[in-house]
Write a structure and sequence with these properties.
By secondary structure, the chain is an alpha+beta fold. It contains 21 helices and 26 strands. Helix content is 44%, strand content 25%. β9 and β10 form a beta hairpin. The radius of gyration is 50 Å and the shape is elongated.
Amino acid sequence: MIHLEQLTATLMQGVIEYAGAERGALILLEEDQLIVVAQCSGNRQCDLEKLAVADCATIPVSVIHSVERTQETLVLDDAVTELSFSTAPYIQHHQTRSLLCMPILQQRQLIGILYLENNLSTGVFTRDRLQILELLIAQATISLENTRRYERLANYAETLERKLEEQTQALQQEIIDRERTEDALRQSEANYRNLLQTANSVIIRYDPQGRIRYINDYGIKLLGYEEHQILGRTLFETIIPDIEISGRDVKPFVHDLLRNPKSYPQGEGENLCRDGRRIWMVWSNQAIFNDQGDVVEILSVGNDTTQRRQAEEALQRSEAKFRNIFANSQVGIYRTRIGDGLILDANQRFADLFGFDSPQEMIGIEHTTGYWVNLRDRQQGIEVMKRDGEVRSYEAQMRKRDGTVFWGLFSSYLNTGDDYIEGVIADISDRKQAEVALQASEAELRSLFSAIPDPMCIFNGEGQLICAIKGNPSYGELYREEYIGKTLHRLYDREQADEFLSYIQQVLRTQQVLTVEYSQWIAGREIWFSARISPIRHEQVIWLARDITPQKQAEATSILEERNRMAREIHDTLAQSFTGILAQVGAANQVLTDDVEATQAHLDLIKELARTGLTEARRSVVALRPQLLEEGSLQNALHRLVTQIRAAANDTTLYYEVKGTAYTLSTEVESNLLRIGQEALTNAIKHANADEIRVELVYDRDQFCLRVKDNGQGFGVGSIPSSKGFGLLGMSERAERIGAQLTIRSQPGQGTQMIVTVNRE
């Protein structure tokens, strides 16, 4: 049997522990008056002396009465600064910090008030703790009421027994004068039955064989039976389970009760309802004797304690969970005396940290003052706790039992009232070593980066500059410190920013390295860069640029020399051939009518000169690649072409996209692909009147594809006269020349799509 005082003390100790309070008080409403029934502080034994609220000097009476009126929970993070209560004498005297005052309600009626305080820290009673506390109080309320009800029922059973004895004596007296007492007897029996029927307890009578002779209405309702379904049947057939959920066999106990009811005035156990539910009941048992002193019936009064049991079990589970967490925590948990550091409590992890086999080797024996490498660190921590009430994430070097030094991370709070420090400690030696190694690595990396002569920077997927290393001092204008955090569109003109952003997005999409070339004007001169763009973690890329201006200048000089050479060669071959043709044509005209044979000779010579000139022309054309391709790869040449057309065609929107990792095709293939794309773009703008054109390059592993698609007026592919289809014919001839497949799809009013596909060799 759990007494109210025992339950109250257990409840308050659990509440103070879970809520993080220093002390607290439980106030219950008794006969319409608030009575302080328990005052508890930390691990000290609770004071269970009952006091009227007005006579209690250890609680703020004004706060209690405020919650009594509002019936709402009051939480103050710092009571001494709260205007509503800062002038309260109790709060001013005790300098109360964290304060919680919670009404205890049952069916919306106030039955008590819980008061908690913590004078060391502000903001202790957080929302999470309040939610757990409300749940705990809700369950505790049920236990309190059940216990109070049980005590009242125990008194009631005692009173009932006394009344039964008095009535039995009265009945014996009334037998002497039956006629005079008959009416009184019937009235007494009626009152007795009315008392049994209206009681809020199960009242049941059964014979020594366990057959049920009587059960009141409350018992029928609680157990779920109809009266005819339970009367006459035994306890074992109805409400006694074969085995309790805990595994206890209760039948031997009940059999012994039937034989010797005097030995079992009270008991508690599981009972069965008709629907199979199990409820816990506390029973008070009373034997009823006949004139010969034999037991003829047993009267039992039972109260449902299921909710109380559930609350107690939940509390026990919570306590066990807390103890398990304490014992098995991966951080050291401790309590030490303030003055000399004597260890008052510790878990296994704390013992492990200092090289002990168990906490028992330390508790009450060891002093932590001998395990600080620098005792001044401990004193500084105590000073912080005296000022703030606690210290968080405090790092200090500690020494193990064998002298090994390690780094500890502390979080502790000070309880000056009970003269102890309580907190946790974790070993962060690995982290400290990692920090030192990281600092050394960063220093080494920065030293390495500073030795790189070329500018290097990091961009994210939106083109924002994350980090930049200048490299060559001449590039300082490009990578100033204030440029960090800015996007490409703030650093470059729109065209180049779009181009750079497309490179970044392609690298992030394909997760492959991309090499591109571009130029910038720096300090009044054009500088060419070759950039290697590589993906890294967190959707970022490293952009490493190298100055290739000297190479570009050398290439330009070489190209100029080659053009001059080609011009001389054309002058010496094609020009001479065409000059000879013109001279022979003039000579042929003079002799055409006079000498047919001479005319034929001139014509044959003209034909030979023309054939020689054509051969030289074709050779020169192959030698002279398009100028756009001289400045880079096919993808760069097409991009520049799109950029040029975009600038000239203001009413047309052009999109350019490269899919896959770009690779180089043969010179002839790239030259013809460029001309095909150029012709398709020209047709889309001049003939199709398109306002949107998409150019797409697809680099697959074995095949390359160029697509040009517009939304112009379209045409019937087979309906173009040969005299007007030289552009389409030229594209077809170029595709055939490089072994490519050309597909043109178009319908009037539905736009045009040109697709050229060539195998990668």
